[in-house]
């Protein structure tokens, strides 16, 4: 059974809080199993499709408490669903971690680019200031020479 089908079957929201998904899945599964149980008004076919009676290892009869499946198949089905939920969480976390790493690399690249731009801008400003100082010195030097000429 696919994970989407399991969520739909159990009536659970695909985007529900990860912390509560295991407990909610168990509760929803047990409620659904009880509703589908032939002794509770459900049909044998529904019960078997749910995995309580023969679908995932429970078998018909025997087990703890006797009757249809004895609950073992349901536990196996619930465990399988929980395993799928855990695997989906693990996969999602791996994708999120990879995305975070990509974002961190991009941030570092942008920070390096910005630092390089700032350095280049600072060098241009320093060069412009030095050029202005040289022109000022040259202008002052000529002016002082003119003053000296006038005085002499």
TrEMBL record:
Stretches the record annotates as Disordered: 34-76
Keyword Coiled coil: yes
Residue stretches making up the J domain: 5-99
InterPro entries: DnaJ_domain, J_dom_sf
Coiled-coil spans in chain: 78-120
Compositionally biased residues, Gly residues: 51-74
Keywords carried by this UniProt record: Coiled coil
Domain of life: Eukaryota
Entry-linked SUPFAM superfamilies: Chaperone J-domain (SSF46565)
Name of this chain's protein: J domain-containing protein
